[in-house]
Structure formats: C-alpha cells, structure tokens
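ingest -> validate -> predict -> emit
validate: passed (alphabet ok, no gaps, 425 aa)
predict: started
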Amino acid sequence: MPQVEVNRSRHAGTRHAETRHAGRTLRLAWKLLPVVPLLLFLFGPYVTFAGKARPMDMWMDGARQRTDVVYDGRHYFITAEALKLWGLQADYDPDARWLMLAPVPEAGRDIAFNPVYYRDRVIVLMYHHIVEGPEDRDGLPVSEFRRQMELLAANRFNVIGMREFADYMLRGAPVPPNAVLITFDDGYESFYTLAFPVLKELGFPASNFLIVKWIDKPYGIPKLTWDQMREMQAYGMSFYNHSYQSHEYRPVNKSGRLKPALAHRLYLKDKKRRETPDEYRQRVLDDLTAAERRLREELGNRTGILAFPYGAYNEDLLHLAEEAGIELVFSTKEGINKRGQRVVYRVNAGAPDADAEELVRRMRHALGHVPDIRLQVSFGDAELVFPTARPFERNGTVWLPLETMAETFGVRYQMDRENGNVIFF
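emit:
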C-alpha cells in the first residue's frame, strides 16, 4: 500500500509540474500577443508562404500555355517560363540569384514596361557644378551625370518640369507615378555646356537656381548668361531665385562668427551692433525682390520660387519670402515631397563621388528602407521592385507575384480558378 501512495504522489507531482509549465507558456504567449501585429506589419509583406502548385491553362491572344500557378492565400505566383506568353524571355543565374528578363525577338509584341515605385509624391534631385572628368573634385563628372539620367529613363521615372511641380505643390494638380524634378543651384555655365546636352538628348526638363548678381556681374567659376538661358528655355529648362547677392557667410556677432547671410541678422561692424529686426527684414526683402525683378525682366518669370542659400532658413525667412511674393521654397533637407508641403525637400545627387546605381536603387524604394534582395529580377538596366509579395525560387523554378508583374508590364488578367484558366489581355 505505501508503494501505491508513493506512485500516486509522483503522478500528482508530474501533473502539477506540467500544469505549471502550461501556465507559464500561456502567460508568455499572452505577453507576446500585442507584438504579433507589429511583426506582421514589419515583415508580413516580404514573407512568402509558398503554397501547392496547381496546373492551369494560360491564354493570351489565342495562344495557350499549360503551367503551374501557386496561391499562398493572398497572392498568385506564376513561373518565369509563363512570361513567354507576354513576349518576355527569362534567363536565370542560380549562383547570382538573378532573373534577367528581355523581349522575345521573334514574338513581335510591344513590351510595355511601366513599374510603379510610388504615387502622388515627387523626388527632387539637387546638383551644382558638372565637370569633365573624375580628376576634378569641384563637381559631378558628366559621365556620372549621364549615367544617372540614363538610369532614370531605363527605370521609367517620369521627369517633370517646375511648372508641373508647382501646380502639384500649390494647387493640388496630379503628377505621374515615379515623378522626379531635376534642380541645379548657383547658375554655373557647366549647366549649359555639359548638363544641358544630356538633358536635351533625353527630353528631360530641369531648373537652375541663380545667384542673380553673379549672372549680371560674373564672379568665380564661369556662370550662365541670359542668352544661354533663353536658348535653353525652349527645351524645357527654367531658372529661379537663389538670392540676388546673399549666397555668402557673413559675421553675426562681434567675435566674427559666420552664418548664412539670408537667414540671419548680421553684425554691423561700423555701428558695433547686430541688425535690428526691421533692418534685417528690409535687407532680405530688397535682396529677394531684386532677384525676382531681374528674372522677370530677362526671362519673363511669373512665379516666385526660391532655393535657400546653403539650405538655411527659419520662420522669419519663410514669412519674408512670402512677403516678397515667393510661392515655393526649396531646402537641402532630404526627403520625398507630398502635395501642400511648406518647404521642398531635395536629394543631393551631385556629390563628386555619387553612385548612380545606389541613387536609383534608393529612389525605387521612395527613399525609404531598401530591403535585402534575395532574388533580383531585372528588365534591361531596370531592377523590378516588389512591394508586397516577393519572388522566390523552388527546385530550380523561379516564381513571380502575378499582380506586380502584370502591373509592371501593362498586362490585365482574369483568374478563373474553378475551370483552371488564366486569361491575359
């Protein structure tokens, strides 16, 4: 009998321990429950739970191809081989995990390539001086500038002009997907001699912000002339305000501390004091209105647009710019622009060591996080972006998310799961 009691006691102890363990597990799961939505938000769009492949008939323009389709509960995936119906051939390098797409020469089909990286927003690129070769560290080599522009074209970014951008920012007008505005600062002559031929060849408009006094009275690195600007206006180039003569650092106190002149009250050495608020206001208004007047006289400008020298501004300067008739102001702060924004953000694309591929890669992700690419898909010089479901490889077969691929290549489709058909048109 005692032995029986001992066994019962042991069994009871085991059950009690199991109950305690189960309780701890439940409590831990309960504590982790609030984290689950965050994990799904962060990683859900990039996780592919590949389901079972199902054979289906695919149709396009009377041609039929029987191939497998995968459905993971949210997204359909088709094989790279199935793209032949669309007039695309696929070449996969398993070592590099890189799928290269190209038109099938004998297909005789026009390939529409229109990827969408972002909508209803605009990326503004900023440049200054363009130079002949990489040995000149004063600016961006023209070869690198050309590479950047060619990649914008290959990746189907839509370059818009300043008027279209101003209508979007100030009046709520629409812009195309992947919209980009190209800007230059300081009015260097290299804009005419080196940048303009590339822009003209590709049909891209651009804007240049001028230090207007340096145009009237050239100083330092050669500047644009009014005649050159008028010539370029016929090809979509436009020119705006970068101050009249306030693109400089000047003392703001007795000790000689230097600050951007347009954004700060200056130290008046002869009077041994700083400018009063009224003196600062009048100096800034005189400067901005002088620049606007010359732009109207020489180029016929009707919209006041200003790029702050050195990107420096404050609330006082914003109000003074508005008082001077400036409708739109540009900074050097990086970001993507949305309708109605008070100050325009720009991306510095013109550093001497700028990398064209890295720039465009960031732009494809709307300047946000660039995820690790497990399987790269490209079309010519353009890399495809998959914002929801990602492509994957299984047993040597590459599977591509149908929705993104159809949108990118302008293909509409109808899915008939009951009868096992996919109709493309």
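Confidence is low (pLDDT under 50) at residues 1-10, 40-50.
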